[in-house]
Amino acid sequence: MTPSPTDRPGELPPASRAGLCATCRHVQRIESAKGSVFLLCTLSKTDPRFPKYPPQPVRACSGFSAGS
Ligand code: SF4
Question: pTM of the full predicted structure?
């Protein structure tokens, strides 16, 4: 079975399902050649507790900081 787009880790879900990452200062939006948008957590570069592409939507996160 082919996964739906929202089943892919880190991919930006529809706005109605957007979680904390969408408004976090540590997020970096990555757009693929096919036009899909993924959310990369920049804290993952320095802290192994944070996945590079957190499964969306993230509802609770110790690293969240508003400001994106
Ligand atoms: S710190 Fe948490 S809320 Fe912020 S981008 Fe990373 S996973 Fe998302």
Answer: 0.79
